[in-house]
Amino acid sequence: MQTRRLKADEQGILEAADRIRSGDLVAFPTETVYGLGASVYDAAAVQAIFAAKGRPGDNPLIAHVLGIRDAQALGEWTPLAQTLAEAFWPGPLTLIVKRRPQVSSVVSAGLPTIALRAPSHPVARALIAAAGVPIAAPSANRSGRPSPTTADHVMEDLGGIIPLVLDGGASEVGLESTVVDATSEIPLVLRPGAVTPEMLATVAGECRVAEAVMRQLREGEYAPSPGMRHKHYAPKARMTLVEGSGDEVAAALTALTANAPNTWALALADIIPQGAGPQWRSLGRDAGEAAHNLFYLLREADHQGVKRIYVQALRRDGMGLAVMNRLARAAGFDIKTARELLQGQHDKKGNTE
Fold first, then answer.
1. b/e string for 310-322 if b means 16 or more Cβ within 10 A?
2. pLDDT tens sequence across 71-93
3. H-assigned helices in the chain
4. Peptide bond into 90 cis (omega under 30)
5. How far is residue 160's CA from residue 79's CA, in Å, rounded to a whole number?
6. Are 176 and 196 in contact (CB under 8 A)?
7. pTM score
């Protein structure tokens, strides 16, 4: 199959909408990452998303809608969902509610719930409107790979597999949406993102974060949200997250990358040493910039043939929690302290002397 790449102008959006209505798959930009979409009412097309991505069948998709009215047709709306949608839609927030019977269980990976989001990206909204149906869409990448934030990334993973990519430039946020269980009275964050727990608590009065956000699910454990069960976001290189103070992490990353070919250090700009070599890459000045840059850097590491990556661990609050969730899953939860890594380097050096 030849994959066409169209500019996300009026003509391109109309052609993409025709494809959606005809049962084809279309990759399109959102403010978070690029999505791979099909009509939520076309079970065969939704199943084709799983096949194109190599996505496990127990990993639910998100249904993209224009607003609350469309969402209510797909899920059993709750007062909490109404409160959060009024505050954060359109935007990078996905709400989980009970799925209505007319929606195929394929969208929800067989679960009784459905994940719903109203994106704010003008191209995504224009595509949903032109197609006239909600669009089921996970990220437009091969399963397990870093999520795509540009059309180039989509072409790398899905070129020759899907018929059409709408090119709308780089995604603004750079991480997937926050996913919140809105079936009860208190929001429960299942996947952190740009709408932080602190922001949710401001609107809802309080907010909880699922324990599984920063750990692997146990065998047979219920996974109600995308991005919870399987290894995600991973580059080809082995990754380790490094915890500690800025000075400790800088010292550890310096020691770990010295004379180490095909090894990178990723860190916030303020701890990167002056005159640092090309093995250092900046995540940005803060967690927000790190979110925007992360997947781009992981894909760049693949392009450069990097075999080993050490990454500064961020604070697990605000946007830092979202970045750490993605990093931890990309690294297979390989998280070490700077002190133990430095001790390991010292011991290794001592054994060779």
1. bbbbbebebbbbb
2. 999 999 999 999 999 999 999 99
3. 10-21, 43-53, 68-74, 79-88, 122-131, 151-158, 197-204, 246-257, 287-303, 318-330, 338-352
4. yes
5. 44
6. no
7. 0.93
